[in-house]
Specification:
Number of domains: 1
Largest sheet: 5 strands, antiparallel
CATH superfamily: Jelly Rolls
Shape: globular
Radius of gyration: 19 Å
Order of helices and strands: EEEEEEEEEEEEEE
Helix content: under 10%
CATH architecture: Sandwich
Number of strands: 14
């Protein structure tokens, strides 16, 4: 039996900014939204692989995810997922303690640097009770086995941190 995947990628910010002046209140109310879908497949606007998990990282430790060998248990069976491209990445730092940040660190040996313009010096911080969504639904970011496949998530804090992650990509 063949598998299929469909993905909805969404992000939104809505705001109401008000300033009271002498006889009235001025308001700026709007929103910025992104909502797109990926159909099943390996071309632009498509994905055929999904990996997700909830993980914990000890204080000062790293969680190195090999994007060519992501292990998941689904319906009682263990699957290994190998990505050729990443189309979307969502990481949610579930800590509610101020200062409990996670870092995507591309300086690791064989680091997945494609979303960071190939730079080994790039670090992205995900603050406590915050999320990071990266999306490249047309082209995806190439995963190169053995030289560009390790997604390092670093916990620089003094507390263990739990996070949730979903990686959407293609097999070719």
């Amino acid at each position: 039996m063949a598998d299929t995947l469909s993905v909805d990628v969404r992000a939104s910010l809505a705001w109401l900014f008000q300033e009271a002046i002498d006889l009235t209140t001025i308001a700026d109310s709007s929103k910025l939204e992104y909502a797109r879908s990926l159909a099943d497949g390996i071309a632009g606007d498509q994905a055929d692989k999904l990996w997700h998990d909830e993980r914990s990282i000890a204080a000062g430790a790293n969680d190195d995810l090999d994007l060519t060998a992501l292990v998941n248990t689904v319906f009682g069976s263990t699957l290994t997922i190998a990505l050729a491209k990443v189309k979307a990445l969502l990481i949610v730092n579930t800590s509610t303690v101020s200062g409990d940040e996670l870092r995507l660190d591309s300086s690791v040996t064989n680091g997945f640097r494609a979303p960071f313009n190939g730079s080994a010096a790039s670090i992205v911080e995900i603050g406590a009770d915050s999320a990071l969504l990266l999306c490249n639904k047309k082209d995806g970011w190439a995963v190169t086995a053995g030289t560009g496949d390790i997604l390092r998530i670093h916990n620089p804090t003094a507390n263990a941190i739990t996070y949730r992650i979903a990686v959407i990509g293609t097999s070719a």
